[in-house]
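User: Structure please.
Assistant: Input sequence and predicted structure:
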Amino acid sequence: MANLLFKDHPGTWHTADYPKISLTRVSWDTAPNVAVAYVFFGHPIIDFDGSPTAYGPPGIKPTPLDDLGNAWSGAKGWFGVAALSDTDPLVTSGIAKIDKKPELLHKGKYPVIQQAKNGDPNPDFYVSATPHPTGPVYRQSSYVDASQVSFGALSGGVEALGFKLGDCGLAIRHDDALQSGFYFGDVAPDGHVVGECSHHVGTNLGGTGRARTFDNNFPVSFIIFPRSSGGTAAPRSDDAIKATLTPFVRRLSQADNADELPLLMGFNEVGPPTRPQGMRKLETYRAARWTPRPMNYDTIVRGLKTFGWSPVYTPTYTMSIRP
């Protein structure tokens, strides 16, 4: 079998609480320039877009999951909320309802309000949006529900590496036996942000809360796979995502040096805002005989095994220390 190669990709990548992280390309030594995966470490950024209770007008109960300021930007206008102009035929005909408060006008559009007559689940909340609606833009059911579906947000920087909507990844919590697969089903606004994932991924990993107070203060490694969409960007269940990911994870585990992947993940673990230094620590580990493994190595391996990790060779040395 061949060996895995690891190389940090240039760029100022960042995730929640980590202004600079390392994005490490994984390839085979038989094709060193062809990325088969990318690995990084950080706290997840929680994406509430598409949830029927993500956004609403001030004072609405229950309190929306996210703050309305996170649903629009000066450059793009509304992106986390469906929006229409007051002259749109859907509005003038009464099919769609908008909130015409002057302060809510961005790029000529106002947020669309959920309505019982349209079958929306939370009337008076705003219709929260994700890319590529599958039905009318004014219906909440046309969008992927972040509270029920495991998806990630694809940034321009990651897209430039060859990723597309529909490609899949795996998030593994280091300090607890929790993990979550996901597929790229939303678009991140920042070109070099990574680790943005749906509310459902966050809760799969054990997080709780809303908006900026969501508890994401736990170490997570992400591994994302280009060309893993299976030809679709459609929403899918956690079981379907796992079925897609399993052959990719299992393939990596067959490498002669497969153990270096969980080692890299574990060596990346640092407290914020320190930059992860997994590659440097992995190189030290290779050079120094009997160098201890990372503290959470065994938990990382258990997370990988949940998604098909089955190495041919399992090293016997298991000493672990804090990174």
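The first strand starts at residue 4 and ends at 15.
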